[in-house]
Amino acid sequence: MTPIQRFYQWVIDSPPLLELRPPISDLSVFSSSQRLDDTHIYQGNPRLGFLYQHLCEQVIIASPNHSIKHDEIQINVDGRTLGAIDFIVENQQSNLLEHWEVAIKFYLLHEDIWFGPNSHDQLDKKLERMLNHQLAMSSSSAFVEQYPELKTNSEHLLMQGRLYINPFLEQSIPTECLGYKINPSQVNGFWCYKSQVHLVEEGLYPINKDQWAAGIDNFDGEPIKEFDDRFIHAQTNTGQFWFVMPESWPHN
Question: For residue 9, is it within any domain?
Fold first, then answer.
């Protein structure tokens, strides 16, 4: 299986970060068991979020009952961009249009807050923006005026990824975010500070950003020997994911 096929399968199989409750959704509605072709190549923006959106697009395309009506619709107001809608999906059974927003996120628990490796990113802030800004765009007056033919019937938010806890700190794991239950199956990663890495009992193998989700299955290389002042995302050969963070995180 190629790395992009591995990632695609992870997108299909992995539950969302939050338990299902509208508008929180998963990809099961597309009921696709189709594997990505061996020759499939992604040549778009290399950032992880764009690759993830592309793979979600492939899942929808493979669905027998849905099709993508539009994607990446730019909403403009007085010459400025209000934002972009990820997907307008047509449900061919009901002939209704659905607004879908998708995001892949990785958050580390610190003092009751889920921070991204870049600590400006936080789960509560991201979820609030997705719910109250991104999903609201399909009912905004700007969208209705620009695309009167695209009247959507429902909004759907897919947020996949992984949540990490520090086993060397006393932590109480939150069970919800903004009233939505956190999916406990997705609290399955670990993180530590650089000064704590000696407590990790397995070797840590570096993974590239496009491997953050599905990981690797080839551990022929050498585990990390030196840790500098940047964060590192790694995996053990038993499959456990770890972030190693600088001592100044998340305050700097």
Answer: yes
119 burial class (0-12, 13-18, 19+ CB within 10 angstroms)?
middle
Q: Is the pLDDT of residue 115 over 90?
A: yes
For residue 199, being part of any structural domain is answered with yes
Determine whether 212 is exposed, middle or buried from the number of CB atoms within 10 Å of its CB (0-12, 13-18, 19+): buried
Domain that holds residue 229: 3-245
CA pair distance 176, 179, nearest whole angstrom? 6
Question: What integer is the mean pLDDT of 74-90?
Answer: 90
Per the structure, the count of domains in the chain is 1
In-domain check, residue 168: yes
Rounded (10°) CA dihedral 101, 107, 109, 111: -70
Beta 152-165 vs 187-193: how paired, if at all? parallel
User: How many whole angstroms separate alpha carbon 73 and alpha carbon 5?
Assistant: 27
Whether the predicted pLDDT of 68 surpasses 90: yes
What pLDDT is recorded for position 111? 96
Q: C-alpha distances in angstroms, 104 versus 19, 90, 126, 171, 188?
A: 15, 23, 11, 24, 15
What's residue 33's pLDDT?
Answer: 66
Is 251 inside a domain boundary? Answer: no
Helix (H, G, I), strand (E, B) or coil at 57: helix
